[in-house]
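Q: what does this look like with 3-hydroxy-3-methylglutaryl-coenzyme A bound?
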Amino acid sequence: MSAAREHVELIEVGPRDGLQNEKRIVSVDDKVRFVELLVSAGFREIEVTSFVSPKWVPQLADAEEVLARIPRADGVVYSALVPNEKGLERALACGVRKVSVFTAASEGFTRKNINATIAESIERFKPVVARAHEAGAVVRGYVSCVVACPYDGPIAPDAVRETCARLAEIGVDELDLGDTIGVAHPDEIARVIEACARVRPAGELVIHLHDTFGRAIACAERALALGIRKFDGSTGGIGGCPYAPGASGNVATEKLEALCAARGYETRIDRAALTGAARFISSVLAAPAAEA
Ligand code: HMG
Ligand code: MG
């Protein structure tokens, strides 16, 4: 009998990161259908939306309605971004059991993205983490701009480790390292992982790659070799951050799945169903705009 293959967890962020930058508002029906197709493809964790200010991200202003309409499947975590206590209360009211706070390793991006310094963001998150835990929710902490910032330029791995350490100190359960603008080379990702593995073991860190220059899969491959076993992806490679000029979509989850399969890891993702979900969301986004 052959040995069991090691597992890599692919976390789908397309409904949130993939859609948040779309100018044209995608209907609630299409968002719900996208999530249903992702569940059928086998994802155990899907980041479905954000409870941020609707003025800052109009595309996700329908977070309550989307969550109310998604049928919940056993064993699937439906997570959401929350920038502050107000966002957390909205998420908890919708039954969300995993929330993500988000800051960065660069001051410029943090200011543009959440209107705070890094230190202010950590202070803001303290009551969010405490209240989320009290309610039985798990908290992910994103650190953006782990290699470079669109405003501040190159970022030192030690700055990333420092933000990770602050998030760990306030009790964040899971650390997620984001190459927000998709510029990383594999050596740079390796240095960031080595620095952050001093805060949490590599096997517990999540890597979140954007694919602006087509190097995301090479970075993921290096991350796998360094013990990373959790990756975010966006089905269809859709998306980008409205506060990161020049950044393109997340690495396509299909490419991550193919990489893992080729390297002998199992992901429990059904490739044909994943391709179907990618086709669905790509056709929604490519459809001509309705007449005004
Ligand atoms: P602010 O303007 O400083 O907030 O924004 P404020 O506290 O002064 O409030 C201003 C108004 O927003 C008030 O309403 C609040 O009630 C409202 P008004 O009195 O003017 O009518 N407000 C809210 N409404 C609903 N839900 C809330 C909420 N909070 C305040 N939670 C704030 C600060 C953090 C709210 C804002 O900057 C924001 O929402 N930013 C989110 C930006 C965002 O979503 N960016 C994309 C996600 S991050 C990302 O993509 C990177 C990632 O993928 C990883 C990577 O790639 O690296 C995660
Ligand atoms: Mg992102």
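Strands lie at 9-12, 45-50, 77-81, 98-104, 138-144, 148-149, 153-154, 174-179, 206-209, 230-233. The chain has a mean pLDDT of 96.
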